[in-house]
Task: structure prediction
Amino acid sequence: MDPEIRKIKKRVRSFSPEITDTLCDLIAIPTVNPPGKAYQECAEYLCARLKDWGLKHRLVRIPDAKYPRYSIIGAHDSRKESLHFHGHYDVVPADSDRQFEPVQKDGCLYGRGSSDMKGGLVAMLFALLAFRDCEFGKYGNITFSLVPDEETGGSRGTRHLFEAGLISRKIKGMLMPEPTSGVVWNANKGALTSRITVKGKPAHVALECTGDNAFERMIGIARSLFELRKDVQKRKTSLAVEPPQANRSAMLIGGESGSGVNFNVVPDKAFFTVDRRLNPEENLDDARAELMEVFDEHIKKGADLAVEMLQEGESSLADPASPLALALMHSVKSITGLEPVFELCPGLCEIRFFNNKHIPAYAYGPGILEVSHGPREYVRIRDILDCTAIYALTALRFFIDQVKK
Result:
């Protein structure tokens, strides 16, 4: 394998200036989600680059009233089994417009999305080129998808591609470049996020007795949820996760809340959110039923409330000893000298869409989770180059091992 590793490294080094320029171009496109700005501009830029590189691709447009969604699928050959590269180009809102002005300093590139995950996306695209230019295509087929809306659950991105039958059933495994801080995520927590709106009856404070205080009813519902949270927090995963305290199941009550129209009026409406995070050992339907049981009890007591589900995402788990997992582990060690550990992603991750379709999926990327979404988001350029080589080498190892079997 040493000659192949040297060949990949040499090709990746030759890409270095273009890799940096491409990432700067992508950071400068403010693909902010929500609401979904500049998606068309970003998709057109990516399609133009793919065309220049001679990589087959297809643009998929999903209608939306104000901000259409665009996914790109490429190198798609339904006749062949493949390894799939997957990533998202949307970013969370910036603290300042200056975050969309990329800055290089001390071997790092700063800007919104540099870590999560435009740096990794660029690494994955250039890994495709390195794999092709090194003439490794004879060993196997790589497909890829570039999607929006990951930051808001993926319903009009990855989920849509699966529901529309645009993700091949012949995919044997998936890699995606989330900012994993040097570890591999082979599992992720699930999420169930809801907004509860409680209705009451308004009245002047002097005639409070004639009103129905929605805020007071909301507090009662919240108390019941805090009791449920005591039980939820006792549930722990057996999987490794950082920080170790994140092994507990979680329920955040009141991340958003509000009520009333003025200090001297009985509030006729109050709302709050509940964000439930599930470990892989838990079931999304069971978690939903637990919450609804609390709400139903208060409805029986006379509460007028409505529950809006804002986000539902399943947990997932892939075997850390699968052929793709081993190929990735050995490739990381070959390029960086360090053997990565496999951990549970503490949040949602799009590996779930693939894992839950029995396609083993793993996240490993050049970004640092701690700085992602922050005001000083950055990625090390060296890490992008390393990951470019790692992805190409992982594909090669995976295909060769499949042939041996």
Q: What stands out?
A: The chain is about 35% helix and 25% strand. The longest helix spans residues 2-27. The first strand starts at residue 57 and ends at 62.
